[in-house]
Structure formats: structure tokens, C-alpha cells
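re the bet — no i am not wrong, look at it urself. input seq straight from the record:
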Amino acid sequence: MVKALNDGMRRALESDRRVLLIGEDIGRLGGVFRTTDGLQKDFGEDRVVDSPLGEAGIVGSAIGLAMRGYRPVCEIQFDGFVYPAVNQIITQLAKIRHRSAGAVCLPVVIRIPFGGGIGSIEHHSESPETYFAHTAGLKVVTCSTPQDAHTMIRQAIASDDPTIFLEPKRRYWAKGDVTDAPDLALDKARIVRSGNDITFIAYGPTVDTTLQAAEAAEAQGHSVEVIDLRSLSPVDTETVVDSVRRTGRALVIHEASLSHGMGAEITARIQHEAFYFLEAPVLRITGYDTPYPPSRLEHDWLPNVERILSATDRSFRY
């Protein structure tokens, strides 16, 4: 996935001179995860910019650059470091296009490695997606495979909307084939596994875990459909609802805490659009309503195959 993201950004830099990258240690070092490795050498320090340590300054500078016609791509080094920039993101980046009646576009992409599972210390394993998905004026997307990483980052950079691009850091080393042509629009969900009995809905780092659970559930006699949301704002409600109307059951899986999260939003949409098709309540398998735990406990905190299978059993008991 790291190589796919790198190549996607390389293609964007090659095809449009207005594209530039800005972030801490992204140039000479190539980023802490090496997602920008070699790009400063090939495109120069004016287009791959090593910023000072200051997220508000990174995003604020990007807003100014976008107002002058550039298409900046910001890197936030870790998910827990984005909060100093939240004021810029929510009060400026998300609002200016609406405030100007569409006269001023801000084609800014903010790349954020997010989620846990890599044994990191405090503030390095956050799931901040709900803050941004709740903010009108932002697109919020996340990839789960190298293919989607490659095509979605290029689509996000080409979009005239400000986009929060969430990268599941524990999937950075996932391998897969990559082709040039995008097969889906940026705001569309993907059915990654077809089934008839129950729908599992996930995104980003939990998609792989969910697919593993679907395989285990199949061994127990359940035909499972798995949907990768890909876009958290806007949500592709149509794909989700069509699936649940066929299967009659749904689980939503994500790493972020349970309360007020994406799972609640997806559940509400299913209840509204597919209530009479449901054979059981929509269930959520998520992180707990606590701060992210120390690394030695994270695998007990994160959704896993056993918790998903337990929820599947509860659904079929109705």
C-alpha cells in the first residue's frame, strides 16, 4: 500500500504542476512510513515541502495555497497529531466554498495515517474519522487495499472538494496488484464479498478482519456479504441498503469507539431505509468507549474475528 500511495502521488505530481506535497519529514526522509520516499529528489523542494513541526501551519498554508490556485496534499504524521489543525479544518477548510457561494474552491487533501494495531505509543493510534465526517463541507474517504490506495489518492487530489484521506497504517504493508484505471467513483462503496444471509459493513483497517470473519462464518453455514464503505462522507447508502434488503441482517465494524460513531450513522440509515426487511437489529462491533489502550492491550480492544462471530450468532438468534 505504501508503494501504491507513493506512485499515486507521483502520477499526480507529474500530471499537474499545481500539485504539491507538504508535511513534516516528507522530503529528505520520505515520511515516517516512507509514503513519499524519493518524491522530493525527483520533483524538488518547492513541490515536496518539509514543513516545520506544526499541523495548524501545514493546513493553514495549504488553504492559502489552494486559494492561489494550487492543489496541496498535506501529510499529518500520525492520527493523534491532527487535533492542532482541527480549527483550520473545521472553521476554514470546510466552510470557504460554501461561504463564497462556490466562487472559491479549496482542493486540499489531508492524508492521515489512522487506526491501531501496530503497537504504538499514546496519540499514535487514534480513529478521528467521526469528527470530520460530521463536518459538512468535507469529503472523508479511506482505502483498504493497495489498488484503492493508488486510485483513490489520485481521485482525491483531482477533486475540487477538500478531502480527508485516511490511510489504515496497519495495512500499509499489505500487498496486491495495482492497475491504473479506477473502477469506482471516489464516493462509492465496494462489495468485496457476495453473500445472501447477512451483510458485514466495514472500512479501512477493519475490512481485512471482516473478510476473515466472513470466511469463518461461512464455515459455520452462513453466507456473508462484505461491504467496504470507502467513503465515510458522503456515504453510499444505496449500496448498503440494497445489500441489507437482500440479506435481512447487518453488522457494522470499525475501530473507533462505539458511541456516536460511524456505526451509529450507518445503523440509522439502514433502520430508516430497510426497516421492514430486517430480521434482526443492526449490531455494531467497535472499539470500546475508552481512550485507546496501551499497546499490550490493543488486540483485546480492537474488533477481532471472535467478536464479529459472536455478534453474528446473536443476529441469527433473533
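see?? The mean pLDDT is 96. told u. also The chain is about 35% helix and 20% strand. so pay up
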